[in-house]
Write a structure and sequence with these properties.
By secondary structure, the protein is mainly α. 77% of the residues lie in helices and 2% in strands. The protein has one domain: Orthogonal Bundle (Helix Hairpins). The protein starts with a helix and ends with a helix.
Length: 166
């Protein structure tokens, strides 16, 4: 990627994380607010999953597409699950143990993404466990495919640049 592309990716990631921290999520006992919050989280996660799948399909059809769209989509997927985890933790306090802040939720989503988790924050309720199951399937199926495409294209570019050198 060019320097400009790296700056676009970095800017998009910073914007996504900033939006994650400013989206209003307050504890509420009103059923309609809870339903609205859960619906919004599901729509956000669904949109992020669709974005990642769309970027992967575009990438599979062409070797010349830039990588930044896929990279940003992968980050959006991880942040979407962090937000869904946090919404569930705020809405039903018995669903997660140790998840008190947005940073806890982002940490949990990323530790679930890159490992099997550390155990300091964990799903304790059935709703949280179902959400984490979807997150793990997303991580393995979609994010691993996307990450593989990123690595393969980066490797191909390095090989091409080495071949092109005199």
């Amino acid at each position: 990627m060019t320097k400009a592309a790296w700056f676009r990716v970095l800017g998009a990631v910073v914007l996504l994380v900033a939006l994650y921290y400013v989206v209003p999520v307050n504890a509420s006992t009103h059923d309609w607010r809870l339903a609205l919050r859960i619906t919004a989280a599901v729509v956000f996660v669904g949109g992020a999953v669709a974005l990642v799948i769309w970027q992967i399909r575009r990438r599979l059809r062409s070797d010349v597409l830039p990588l930044e769209g896929l990279a940003v989509a992968l980050v959006a997927g991880a942040i979407a699950f962090a937000l869904a985890d946090y919404v569930l933790a705020v809405s039903a306090h018995d669903q997660f143990v140790g998840m008190d802040t947005r940073t806890d939720a982002l940490y949990f989503a990323l530790s679930t993404l890159f490992t099997v988790g550390f155990g300091d924050i964990h799903a304790s309720g059935q709703g949280a466990r179902v959400l984490v199951i979807f997150q793990m399937v997303f991580n393995i199926g979609v994010l691993a495919t996307g990450a593989s495409l990123l690595v393969n294209q980066a490797t191909a570019r390095v090989r091409k640049s080495r071949r092109d050198k005199p």
